[in-house]
Amino acid sequence: MEKSLIDVAVALPVYSAYTYSLPNHLEEMATPGRRVLVPFGRRRVTGYILERLAPAATPLRNVRHILDILDDSPLFPESMIRFYRWMSEYYIYPIGEVIRTALPGGLNPQDVSLFQISEDGRNALAGGLLNPSQQEILQHLSSGEKTFRQILEKTDPKTPISLIYALERQGYIQKEHRLKPGMVRVKQDVFLRYMSKPALDDTLSRSHQRIMEALSRLGEISLSRFRQIMPISRKQMDLLMAKGCIEVQEKPVYRDPFGDSIERDSHPVLMDEQAAAVSKISDSLGKMYQAFLLNGVTGSGKTEVYLRVTEAAMEKNLPVIVMVPEIALISQIERRFRARFGHQVAILHSGLSAGERYDQWRRILNHQATVAIGARSALFAPFEKIGLIIVDEEHDPSFKQDSGLRYHARDMALVRAKLENSVVILGSATPSVQSCYNVEMKKLVEIRMEKRVAERMLPVIDVVNMSRRRNETGIHRLISTELHQAMSETLARQEQILLFLNRRGFASLPLCAGCGAVLRCENCHISMTLHQADGEYRCHYCGFQMPSITACPACGGRKMKNLGMGTEKIEAGVKILFPQARVSRMDRDTVSKKGTLVQILKNLKNREIDVLIGTQMIAKGHDFPHITLVGVISADQSLHFPDFRASERTFQLLSQVSGRAGRGQQPGRVILQSYAPDHFSVQCAIHHDFDGFYRQEIAFRKSLRYPPFSRLIQIIVSGRDKDEARIHARDLGDALDKIQKSGFEDINILGPVEAFLPKLEKRYRWQILLKAFDMKQLHLFMNQTRSSYALLFQSRQIHVAIDVDPVFMM
Predict the structure, then answer these.
(1) Angle between helices 327-341 and 302-315 (to 10 degrees)
(2) Looking at the predicted structure, is the pLDDT value of residue 386 above 90?
(3) pLDDT score, position 374
């Protein structure tokens, strides 16, 4: 009898799907979208069923059985498999790893290899018969069993990985495989339900009677909730169950990530531009693929357009995905959507616990939510058929994932919508150059909204040329006299102030006063940042910390000059200038604990904060009507990054943060401090001149053949050993050169060169940039290189990452 076959994507860094056969008892359950446990080499790994295969014309040899099916129902709809395959091919990333990225974390069981020292190993260690590297490994294992990664983390970077396997062959260490279950499961809760009164001859104590009275009044209720109302012991429950008075049942429940309930809102009257946008977009819903660029100035009411179009989609039973670039923006837009659509809203983002995210995923699968809101991972919401995808602040680089599957959520929103014949809205007050160019190429339909709600004026922007203030001393080196005066006037009117500086910490450049050496991170080639409130220096890339009283590693001197600035230093300065003001700070340091971000925003809304200081997380999307003054501490800071998009990011950031001012009844004012006030991106931001900026920027891109006039792939080579990383990068560069000469002369290869940050998290980094007019050519080129030089991409000690359409060039 022919065995049924399935196509399985395994959750490993392998590019192909694999064929497995089905045991008879698992035939009916094997549907696409379910996870399976399969043998792979000597391991057991999780896989995802992609499709059932037709029986082969001739019997396939060496096809292995799956071991088990892990889900009662599919984890994703079959309609998403085409999307997963598309992403795998485009980003040159294994299909199983694409699916694992898309799904909630913590689900998959893992076959873990654990190493432990053997008796022969202990004898060899005691006898001193080993070389130093062998001794180091065995000494580490003598304290208990370790995973492969744990051994590598504690040994010399130059220790060859093959040495671990050699010690196993010699019998000095032993390896054992264990199947570790996934961390996330369906949450179960105990529920109580009133059934009937006891028989007439059966008496209950007074406490039992009170329990029965409460349950008859409350109906079915969870045990945890009932115990908040009155105490009940296990013994009391057992007695009432035995008498048939109550039913006790365990049921699955959802973990609630929302917290406070929200009052339903009313529909405001739309402005003409809003109404026109809603009408045009709504007409396309449910018909065909259509992509819109909603280009609306800050405060023009784009969110209300999103709400109205979402309502139109839901009337047609079409699900909606809403994406925002950062978790900091989710709470505000989530509250707006919940106020309009209530329990039909689900949220998906990394700020949730693993269990909460899994439950939100289940709500979508079980058709209990119609709208999914989140950051880039909301792209993967498991709706069967999408009606509408909204990408708010579409210009924001945070939509690009910078590790693992390096996808751009905005671009993939367009792809998913096209595959499902859906509608996409890309919304922004400062659209990306790429999206504006796509309007010119007729790939997007632009809708403009050039008036603020209630005809409010855009804020007046005043510039302070800080290059003429180099002799200022004290706090006025950071906060100019003009900004100081404006803050005084604003506080006197009892209005709120926003101060923006896109750098956290107190001081970003600690120098030794004795020898001038920069205090750098031990793991990264980057200077440490002083966090004065915590009394420590901190690396903002890997998190390495050292006390603020630290000796210079170069000369041993103990006096450090803490130069540079960050939000913490601005906060300290504001408290000196305005001791009576209520000052708060919003950056990654202050919102790291769950709930703190929402609390800061709530305090700002309730006018319990006079001055809010923050990084880019305060610059976009927030709507607080009592903020009338915005101060930009260093307007041109982002201009100095070695990236062709530096001007674009500067313009967008300045325009966005300026747009936080004057969103209420009172007019807004912006004071922009700059050392390069004449740069065209700063000047265009000052005059709210988006079209002028785009004309200059697109001409610059065209002259230098930068995107959107070319396509890029970046290859990042990294390793723990400096020399090995350098040699591997050069070998890969030579391989690329050989493939280029075989028919890919149109592809330009830049590098290999050391990365701008040559060391991050103990890994030395090199990069190669591939540039061409056609992405298909780049894909062919990369696939041929991987095929011809596979070992260069499979090294255990060197990691090679491929970044298609890179955004972060550091």
Answers:
(1) 50
(2) yes
(3) 93
**Among the listed residues 507, 551, 564, 540, the one whose alpha carbon sits nearest the alpha carbon of residue 760:** 540
pLDDT tens digits along 114-153:
888 888 888 888 887 788 888 888 888 888 888 877 777 7
Q: What is the pLDDT of residues 340-368, one digit of tens each?
A: 998 899 998 877 888 888 888 999 999 99
Mean pLDDT of the chain: 88
268 is written with which tokens? Answer: 């405001």
Radius of gyration of the chain (CA): 30
221-222 sheet: strands from edge to edge: 221-222, 187-194, 246-253
Cα 208 to Cα 474: distance, rounded to the nearest angstrom: 72
What is each CA distance from 533 to 74, 548, 569, in whole angstroms?
Answer: 49, 10, 10
d(CA 84, CA 82): 5
Max CA-CA distance within the chain? 97
Secondary structure (DSSP) of 19-48: EEE--GGGTTT--TT-EEEEEETTEEEEEE
The three-state DSSP-derived secondary structure of 735-757 is: HHHHHHCCCCCCCEEEEEEEEEE
3-state secondary structure of 605: helix
Mean pLDDT throughout 491-506? 89
Contact 262, 332 (CB under 8 A): no
Q: DSSP strand E in 548-597: where?
A: 560-563, 583-586
Q: Which of 556, 525, 439 is nearest to 725 (CA)?
A: 525
pLDDT bracket for residue 408 (50, 70, 90): very high
- Bridge partners of 509, per DSSP, are 563
